[in-house]
Amino acid sequence: MRPIRTAFRSRLARLALAVFVAGGAGFAFAHGGATGVVKERMELMKDVGKSMKTLTAMFKGETDYDAGQVKAAAARIRDHAGKITGLFPEGSLDKPTEALPEIWRDWPAFEALAERLAAYSGALIDAAENPGGAGMGTGPQAGQGMMGGQGQGMMMGQGQGMMTGQGRGMMGGGMMAQGGGPPPEMLAQMPPRAAFVHLAQTCNACHTRFRIKKE
Question: Does residue 175 contact residue 169 with C-beta atoms inside 8 Å?
Fold first, then answer.
């Protein structure tokens, strides 16, 4: 059981790093000269990045788990997610934006990811105080049966599974970019780590596909 948990934490750490590099951590240096809707959406994304940093620290065990803080951070992300598509009028590529034209070439996928961000952050709010669930122990980090046991379970998958999908999977195409993935209602009944993982995957999928890659 311990090697599975360690592998999961390692995968979570890599995912968190990708989110920070592609998300809020970079915005502090990118705002110079931004005006209008570009500035507004960059500030929104920076705040989303701060909330993700708060959540990641708790789910990685770097800070104590606090259900109230989880709910507050997830609520900020959910509220921002509902505003995202309105902040991307077609062709708004004035520097220093890091948005790619791909957003408007595949608007349905971009819109689906924004909706998924709202749905999964909402699921995390609902799951924040959940115990491990029947047969999975207690506490926010419980649930190895769903999160990593029995051949690595639903979250880790059998070789790929829900976490990585098939082919590109949830990381930049596949199910998540098409608006797929597990139902938020299901995640809301699971240990909160499950909703957080899919929330972070959604952020990373959007950054991977629709944001200029940093060198």
Answer: yes
Report phi then psi at 211, rounded to 5.
Answer: -125, 140
Q: Model confidence at 213, in pLDDT bands (50, 70, 90)?
A: confident
Residue-wise pLDDT for 24-65, tens only, equals 444 444 556 889 999 999 999 999 999 999 999 999 999 999
Q: Are 192 and 128 a contacting pair, CB within 8 Å? A: yes
Q: Supply 139's token pair.
A: 């506490």
CB half-sphere exposure, 125, CA atoms < 13 A? 16
pLDDT tens digits, 152-179: 333 333 333 333 333 333 333 334 434 4
pLDDT score, position 145: 38
Domains of the chain and CATH, by start: 2-210 (1.20.120.10)
CB neighbours of 8 closer than 8 A, spacing ≥ 6?
Answer: 147, 148, 155, 156
